[in-house]
Design goal:
The protein has 14 helices and 28 strands. The strands form 7 sheets. Strands 3-2-12-11-13-14-15-16-17 form a 9-stranded mixed sheet, sandwiched between helices. Strands 18, 19, 21, 22 and 23 form a 5-stranded antiparallel sheet that branches. The chain is globular.
Length: 499
């Protein structure tokens, strides 16, 4: 049977606290696999017991309902165990990239003020008080369930900010889930492959929802195209999460290797994050068939989103789909008036509960016009209600599925000795979607730029995925007296120029 991303259900919703759902699924089938990573599989009973022990360790460390618990760890079962341990106590897990440089990690922790930070050497280097992951697991603690509690906020996601400063996006959904009404195209008991970093909102959210629904979640320490195909075949996965960069790297594998991969079990892949090139999506639809390829457009703030299946997409190529239930959508022009069909403007959403119903920021203000909010994307809607993006967050760079705010990178570049000003833009990249390119304004007498020295300087200040992959130097002024910059023009000139 063909699956749909938003499968309708006739059952009466019966949500339960997420902290108790691992035990519920373990009672139903204790020996069924729950999580696999690095060739090691934990059964439902083992995973639930480990989460309960970790919850007691966090409780001993002072975590109580309403707290944030920052998790700065690489992908692995411990990451998910600690997230569920937080929900068991009524606390909110807050994934943070363990790869952040010390200054950025310290700034996020200062902003968030979590009760506890769980990390390793990166947190030590940042001078942040933390608890080592190993100390959160004590075999002598009871594996039995604790009293059922609900966290007011299911997650808090750290992000770079458009002002060059970090922010935290706090989800307003409580930590509840109906274990018997799966969605997102998943079905209870599915094997789900999620090769993305769990400190990003989409892979984290998909992984914990899948576990709540009794799925077997296969995660990887880091994405590898060959390994991802191998895991799909080995575990006969029905569902997989990808971003376009992953799709591209899988497609660039040798034809013979891709043809030999066993993807016969796959019933759905869902790609999220950046826009997928039309040619690449066509290739995946040719490979898997149109009914198995789905796309979602949304953001961590979850104020609205669209979705589209491959069969629909073939008649609306380039579209990111039609509105999903739970919000309204509108295209507004610069003056705030509504755009006509096929007229480009900024994409705005209004959640069913009104502005601010789905999230709030710590450290930033939302982009809004009245009650309507935006992720900052430009696009148009056709007469049939299909959304087409003209430019995702005109300033924001989406590289390999990760959001990179130019202002954040520019703040680091501007601190390099001799730099008068800088402008960071995203240039087209066949593999990453966009690559980070830095233009440095320096005095004419400055001499040649020591690129390796600049890279070393930046590496101590911003995360590796935000580092510019190319540099250029100019003596011309990049900004006017008001500090304004012709960013789009600078980007377009370089995008058209030979590499």
């Amino acid at each position: 049977m063909t699956r749909s991303l938003l499968s309708p259900t006739l059952a009466t919703p019966a949500p339960r606290a997420m902290g108790i759902l691992l035990d519920l699924q373990a009672l139903r089938d204790p020996d069924r696999p729950a999580v696999t990573c690095d060739g090691r599989t934990l059964t439902r009973a083992e995973f639930a017991a480990r989460a309960n022990r970790r919850a007691r360790a966090l409780q001993r460390a002072g975590v109580i309902a309403g707290d944030f618990v920052a998790i700065a760890l690489p992908n692995g079962p411990a990451f998910l165990e600690l997230a569920f341990a937080s929900w068991i106590l009524g606390a909110t897990p807050a994934p943070v990239s363990y790869r952040l440089p010390a200054l950025e990690l310290s700034a996020i922790i200062d902003l968030m003020q979590p009760r506890l930070v769980i990390g390793g050497e990166a947190t030590r280097a940042a001078g942040v008080a933390f608890m080592d992951e190993a100390a959160t697991y004590d075999e002598t603690l009871s594996p039995e369930p604790l009293p059922e509690q609900i966290a007011a906020h299911v997650k808090a996601i750290a992000s770079g900010g458009s002002t060059g400063r970090p922010k935290v996006i706090v989800d307003h959904a409580p930590s509840v889930c109906d274990p018997d009404n799966p969605s997102l195209g998943m079905e209870g008991g599915d094997t789900v492959v999620i090769p993305g970093p769990l400190y990003h909102a989409a892979p984290f959210g998909l992984a914990y929802m899948a576990l709540c629904w009794g799925c077997h979640v296969v995660i990887t320490r880091r994405f590898d195209p060959s390994e991802t195909l191998r895991l799909i075949g080995e575990h006969q996965a029905q569902w997989a999460y990808l971003v376009p960069t992953m799709m591209h790297r899988i497609w660039r594998l040798p034809d013979a290797e891709r043809a030999a991969a066993d993807v016969s079990s796959l019933e759905m892949i869902v790609h999220i994050a950046s826009a997928c090139p039309v040619w690449l999506k066509e290739k995946w639809i040719e490979w898997l068939g149109p009914d198995r390829v789905w796309e979602v457009y949304s953001g961590t703030e979850a104020m609205g989103g669209t979705s589209i299946g491959g069969r629909e997409w073939l008649t609306h190529k380039g579209s990111v789909g039609r509105l999903m239930p739970g919000s309204q959508i509108k295209i507004l022009k610069e003056g705030g008036e509504e755009a006509a069909p096929n007229e480009i403007g900024e994409v705005y959403f209004l959640p069913a509960g009104g502005r601010g119903a789905t999230y709030h920021y710590i450290g930033a203000e939302p982009r809004a016009l009245g009650e309507w909010e935006t992720f900052g994307d430009l696009g148009h809607i056709d007469e049939e209600g299909y959304l087409y993006l003209a430019d995702r967050r005109t300033d924001l760079i989406i590289s390999g599925g990760a959001n990179i705010y130019p202002a954040e990178v520019e703040a680091a570049v501007d601190a390099y000795p001799g730099v008068l000003s800088s402008v960071v833009v995203g240039l087209p990249d066949e593999d990453l979607g966009q690559r980070v390119h830095a233009i440095l304004e320096m005095p004419a007498e400055a001499g040649p730029l020591d690129v390796e020295a600049v890279k070393a300087f930046l590496a101590a200040r911003i995360a590796p995925y935000k580092l510019p992959r190319s540099f250029e130097v100019t003596a011309e002024r990049l900004r006017d007296d008001a500090g304004k910059v012709r960013r789009s023009a600078l980007r377009d000139e370089r995008a058209k120029a030979p590499a």
